[in-house]
């Protein structure tokens, strides 16, 4: 189409030139003017006639000249290359982050670059023209580092999706691009660090130069240790590669400067994610930056006994214009415990009502503030900062400077170091003893950090994601969630509580209350989907709250069945401790079994001397499962990734091998083919 358009335009130019030459030789100026008037009048008449039947032109082809694709990209307004050049930088650190850890690691690398004469910049691929990677070689000693997390079933994070697809589908010449990659993953998941591994391989295929080996961080073990171990070997290799030397200085630089206000500004944030007053003046579409303030309609206890608690919550979305499908996730923005927030204010000896702003010292950065500013310290600690996470080593390093007791200072500095003793102490005192920032300040009383600096150091409070436990076919105006209350005692004798579940448990609606209880939410789409044809048989394995999305699946199939349509075999394997204690949605599932929709298999692990789990039931039903597979059935697994999901996968492979009379290798191929066909899906967590 493009080549044809260019040829037609070229031919038109030639014809015009020929007419012009003929006119000069055959006609006088008066004749030419007269001829032009006649042609113009005829053209006007034709256009007017054609306008009467404009609809008939819909089938006529339209041609336009399109620019041809070129390898060299010119700098654009959102050009990271332009920003690097204008600010005298040569290091750019991109991040693909779903929970904030990848972004945090990227920031630490960019900050440390100054020690190695590489002034750095952190960049979000979603906000950059990533095709400009081809131009990075034009900057001397340039280096692109990628801190990329793998999310879901081997998928890139939301902010890295477009970049990932560009790499998959494009064939840019990246010769001259110097790069290094650190991946963030979890070994309990099948697709461990798949995004980082692919990115490393693909960049090399496109001609880029790997400066240092791929680093793989395991969040199931100690991703902080993995990162600092990789980082400390990375910098010397970078120095050798570029022929530069470290300044030798252990620079501690603030990324943000603080500005406190005696008189409150007109615009002060109070918990909004992006737009000021967005929680008061709501307008769609709703997403992570613009959550919907949903009313909680129902909050009821699901467990019938014991000391544990499990909530069934129903959120109102009737006026939100939000839509969901069975298998999607509901994101909830929680707030921190008021008692913990107040403790931080007292331990730091600072009024939490003070209004402040943290302003990026890097004027070229697109991230002007670490969270919405200005706001009060109370708002920052309540809505924007994670105060319950185990602090990472770089935080301890900064806290050490605020200790007046030399022993406490040395303890923090040791844990922040890369020495074996330091790593062991960090693992024991921080991770195993499960200390958060409040506990550290309590146990090291001479440590009195500036609260604004602490707000800069702490990571962002992230939304909590829950598998939706309802079907829009039966519940188009509400979203249901099933959540176990998180509460446990640590080795120090303290009781740690889950941020979101503790907050949600207190939100029990009352018909007598004039003020509704609300929660900021948004829907996150998932690939965890029922077959498009309801007659396809399905197997669902979901112990505990892993049954949540399957309640939605079963509701949807029941709706289809009530409509009189054919529904395939629907098999559920559920597990809990005791029938009369934690059998979730017992009455509902028994009803579905009675009406012939559901084949229900339940493992009660503690009702007999020898424990029975869902894995035992799956193994026992080998013939049924193999028959469903051979008839095009789908398998769904939801729940614990570390043990349950791995065990189920191994049992399924054993069933395929034995019932299909296959070798172990052939069984693996069969399983992989089912995954490729989207006939095996997992929604798991660690």
TrEMBL record:
Keywords: Endoplasmic reticulum, FAD, Flavoprotein, FMN, Membrane, NADP, Oxidoreductase, Transmembrane, Transmembrane helix. Its EC number is 1.6.2.4. GO terms for molecular function: flavin adenine dinucleotide binding; FMN binding; NADP binding; NADPH-hemoprotein reductase activity. Residues 91-235 form the Flavodoxin-like domain. NADP(+) binds at residues 308, 545, 605-606, 611-615, 647. PROSITE patterns: FAD_FR (PS51384), FLAVODOXIN_LIKE (PS50902). InterPro entries: CysJ-like_FAD-binding, FAD-bd_FR_type, Flavdoxin-like, Flavodoxin/NO_synth, Flavoprot_Pyr_Nucl_cyt_Rdtase, Flavoprotein-like_sf, FNR_nucleotide-bd, NADPH_Cyt_P450_Rdtase_alpha. One of its GO terms (cellular component) is endoplasmic reticulum membrane. FAD binds at residues 464-467, 482-484, 488, 498-501, 685. Coiled coil: none annotated. It is a single-pass membrane protein. It catalyses: 2 oxidized [cytochrome P450] + NADPH = 2 reduced [cytochrome P450] + NADP(+) + H(+). Residues 289-531 form the FAD-binding FR-type domain. Binds 1 FAD per monomer. Binds 1 FMN per monomer. Gene3D superfamilies: 3.40.50.360, NADPH-cytochrome p450 Reductase, Chain A, domain 3, Nucleotide-binding domain of ferredoxin-NADP reductase (FNR) module, Translation factors. The keyword Membrane applies. It is found in: Endoplasmic reticulum membrane. FMN binds at residues 97-102, 149-152, 184-193, 219. The chain crosses the membrane at residues 26-47. Pfam families: FAD_binding_1 (PF00667), Flavodoxin_1 (PF00258), NAD_binding_1 (PF00175). This enzyme is required for electron transfer from NADP to cytochrome P450 in microsomes. It can also provide electron transfer to heme oxygenase and cytochrome B5. This is NADPH--cytochrome P450 reductase. It comes from Dendroctonus ponderosae. The gene is 109539561.
